[in-house]
Amino acid sequence: MKRMRLDINGIVQGVGFRPFIYNLAQRFSLTGWVKNVASGVVVEIEGGDSAVAAFVSALQTEVPPLAVVEKFVAVESLPKGDTAFQIKQSDIADERQVFISPDIATCADCQRELTNPSDRRFRYPFTNCTNCGPRYTIIRDVPYDRERTTMAEFGMCSSCRTEYLDPTNRRFHAQPNACPVCGPSYRLIDCHGQLLASNPLETTRRLISEGAIVAVKGIGGYHLACNAFDNQAVVELRRRKIREDKPFAVMGGSCSAISRHCLVSAAEEKVLTGTIRPIVLLSKAPGYALAEAVAPDNLYLGVMLPYAPVHFLLLGSDDVWVMTSGNTSDEPIAYSDEDAVARLSLIADYFLVHNREIYCWADDSVVRVFNEKQFFLRRGRGVAPTPLHLELQGPAVLACGGELKNTFCLTRDNMAFISAHTGNLENAATFNAYQMMIEHYRRILDITPEVAACDLHPGYLSTQYAHDLGLPIIGVQHHHAHIATVLAEHDIVDEAVIGVAFDGTGYGIDGNIWGGEFLLADCCDFTRLGHASYIKLPGGAKAIKEPWRQAAWFLYSLYGRDFINKNIPLNLYLPFGWELALEAAEKGINAPLSSGIGRLFDIAAALLGICCTHINYEGQAAVELEMLSAKAVGALLPYEITDGGMLQLDFRPTFAAMVEAMEIGVRRASLAAAFHVTLATATVDMVYRLSKLTGVKKVALSGGVFQNMSLLCRVVGALTKDFDVFFSSRVPPNDGGLALGQAVVAMKRSG
Q1: Could you give the domains of the chain?
Q2: Does 96 score more than 80 pLDDT?
Q3: What are the Cα distances from residue 74, in Å, to 42, 55, 61?
Q4: Is 515 helix (H, G, I), strand (E, B) or coil?
Q5: How do residues 398-430 score in pLDDT, each as one tens digit?
Q6: Cβ-contact 711, 379 below 8 angstroms
Q7: Looking at residue 298, what DSSP letter applies?
Q8: Do 309 and 126 meet the contact criterion of CB atoms below 8 Å apart?
């Protein structure tokens, strides 16, 4: 006879772990108990030696789909002679420091019930079990019991209650458990609030097929949906949503529907069909036949598959719908019914709404597959608030993130809880939502921050928020935070790397705008070893929105006013009064200095006649330049590396060569490709020089520019033969990953 205590940490509460343990004990005829505790789950089992060994082995290989076992400790103890195995009640205090599961896509068992006419949940759009369904978005407070979720107002019928109390049932303690008799329901209203009496789901399908735009309430918020084959409907959605060019995401009814329009690798299909069901960026296929307005001038399409029961019921297997966030540009996603009707009534013709409250919103996660692995561009539904485990501990930190693509991060012991994507804090509604989400995270995770970490930029609202908390403040330079994020993800906490941080804008310690940085960095501090040469931004922030300003200044610095006589596309787009902008820049009036690589992309694009006069979304010029480059092969152009005490990477020769090439008729696509080749080659050149100088053989790549697959592939491919190369995959390389880096720097400095 043998007794063993098992301490199990990770996502093991609210995911069917206790009934799994119960049934496992029954299988091997063991006695004892299982209980939720602060750190996870504790199990005590007793029985024959071989049965205990089989139980422990099965426990490690057969965990429920949503469970994530982070740590497993088994200790033998004295037998107690238990006569049965039971699930013990947990103390409330024990359940306040657990991990909360994210919202998970509908499992295969629930999908079968949806389509089975003899099942009592046939076509019920809120079907779920312990292996799937809403979690994070319905939790008001912890511990995770029904009365502390937005399901509290729906009392379970006798059939659902029986399932809920049966440890052998997959709905045992499934807090959102419901059925058509006792659970939430959908209704369809028009934009004036009038109820449409017919079947809401079937009517929605018909309306979308006829060209309507419908706001669909799901798990984490509202989507705006229309038929992705109907160009008129998509164009109208763009007009109403004020989204001129940025691609829309789509939802396909099946993998086969998606594969008719996109190239889907085995790795991409695995991500598409997994438990997260994110938006996955896929290459358009030769047979692509969706409306042109869905993703204009883009070789990629953001695609997801149904993840909530309502999606499986709405979309047929051949359907493809635009399924974009329910908001206007730059606003947070709508998730409350009152707010949705107020903000979306001028966009949506109809609203498909349900009466289960969404307590905390979660926008869709966005990923792409790189080197056969998932590579996050935005963390949201299906991921938040799952923690990342760190190889260091420190005080509880609230890292407030940046200004754009904001997320924040809270730490507890060696765990970092990164929020769902918040958005751009320069929008007042987003900033208000940001503050509410921080308070919600603090409550449900039971974390009282001891230190606040923030960006050095004094104008960021996140920085101002941090300073208003009354906590000790640790300011972290923007690009150091980018590199620290990579180090934290890869458990490199006590070693320096060559950090390459490329983005558009970050506050530099010399008062200039950084963005093309080569750092010697660890999780505590950094030294700036090199950077892209500074350029002026005529008009300041206007130059980012109007790329002609940067390009014209660059040409002016090379050729003087004679550049206007060059036979290049840019000169066709110069607005009236362009000379005044350059004269002001020459005098140093509103012309800050920037080393941002993002700005170099803007210049290259504008020279080639891309997005010259204005951009409609962040990074548009760079995206369209990358799309153009994919259509050609480019040659290496000249660049210079100078050493004036710090290495500087100068692209003036690159742009001069592009101008000369355009004047003799070299194709724009070839020059777009040549720019990518040159930037990648120059980056690798800098790394080799800095490695020779420092002896460091590990390289970390981060910053929003490394979302460019053409650049990332070239740089990683060239460096891996001589270096260990690291980049973020579980955390976005863009500013959505800043908060994690801020947090680990603050923990390290506080230690």
Answers
A1: 2-95 (3.30.70.100), 108-165 (no CATH), 186-367 (3.90.870.40), 535-727 (3.30.420.40)
A2: no
A3: 10, 12, 15
A4: strand
A5: 999 999 999 999 999 999 999 999 999 988 989
A6: no
A7: -
A8: yes
Both structure tokens of 54 = 């089989």
CA–CA gap between residue 226 and residue 291 (Å, rounded): 11
Cis status, amide bond into 385, omega within 30 of 0? yes
What would the two tokens of residue 308 be?
A: 């909530």
d(CA 221, CA 238): 19
* 498 φ/ψ angles, rounded to the nearest 5 degrees: -85, 115
Q: Which residues pair with 280 in a beta bridge?
A: 303, 367
Sequential DSSP letters for 604-659? HHHHTTSS-S--SSTTHHHHHHHHHHTTS--PPPP-EEEESSSEEEE-HHHHHHHH
Closest to 90 measured CA to CA, from 154, 38, 15, 133: 38
Residue 373: both structure tokens together: 């692995």
Give me the half-sphere count of Cα atoms (radius 13 Å) on the Cβ side of residue 321. 29
Tell me what percent of the residues of the chain surpass a pLDDT of 90.
87
464 dihedral zone (left: phi>0; alpha: psi -120 to 50; beta): alpha
pTM over 0.70: yes
Query: Counting beta carbons within 10 angstroms of the beta carbon of residue 211, is it exposed (0 to 12), middle (13 to 18) or buried (19 or more)?
Result: middle
- Helix (H/G/I), strand (E/B), else coil: 501: strand
- Which amino acid is residue 521, in one-letter code? A
List Cβ neighbours of 352 (8 Å cut-off, separation of 6 or more): 186, 187, 188, 200, 201, 204, 214, 215, 216, 217, 310
Q: Which two tokens stand for residue 708?
A: 């460019």
Out of 2-16, 94-108, 328-342, 565-579, least confident range:
94-108
pLDDT higher than 90, residue 644: no
Question: CB under 8 Å to 185, separation ≥6 — which residues?
Answer: 126, 354, 355
Closest CA to 722 of 689, 697, 690, 744: 697
CA separation for the pair 688, 723 (Å, rounded): 9
What residues are paired with 195 via a beta bridge?
Answer: 189
Helix or strand run (H / E) with residue 503:
strand 497-507
| Torsion region of 277: left, alpha or beta (phi above 0 gives left; psi -120 to 50 gives alpha) | left
Contact between 382 and 278 under an 8 Å Cβ cutoff? The reply is yes
**Alpha helix positions (H), 151-291:** 158-165, 200-209, 231-241, 255-259, 266-272
* Phi, psi for 33 (deg, rounded to 5): -160, 165
Q: Using CB atoms within 10 Å of the CB of residue 392, give its burial: 0 to 12 exposed, 13 to 18 middle, 19+ buried.
A: middle
The model's pLDDT over 274-289, given as tens digits with 9 standing for 90+, comes to 999 999 999 999 999 9
DSSP string, 469-486: TTS-EEEE-HHHHHHHHH
CA dist., res. 566 & res. 440, Å (int): 57
Nearest to 176 by CA among 126, 102, 105, 109: 126
Structure tokens at 123: 């076509």
CA torsion sign for 434, 436, 437, 443 is: positive
- Helix, strand or coil, per DSSP, at residue 149: strand
Q: Is 585 helix (H, G, I), strand (E, B) or coil?
A: helix
Strand partners, 398: 410, 452
CB neighbours of 61 closer than 8 A, spacing ≥ 6?
A: none
Structure-block tokens of residue 688: 């080799």
Q: Which long-range contacts (CB under 8 A, 24 or more apart) does 198-206 make?
A: 200/352, 201/123, 201/125, 201/310, 201/313, 201/314, 201/352, 204/314, 204/350, 204/352, 205/314, 205/316
- 636 within 8 A of 661, measured Cβ to Cβ: no
Tens-digit pLDDT profile for residues 223-263: 999 999 999 999 999 999 999 999 999 999 999 999 999 99
The beta-strand segments (E) located in 186-345 are: 186-190, 195-196, 214-217, 222-227, 249-252, 262-263, 279-284, 300-304, 320-325
Dihedrals φ, ψ of 490, to 5°? Answer: -105, 15
Q: How many CB atoms lie within 10 A of CB 270?
A: 12
Q: Residue 703: which of 731, 669, 662, 743 has the closest Cα?
A: 731
Nearest alpha carbon to residue 405 among 379, 367, 383: 379
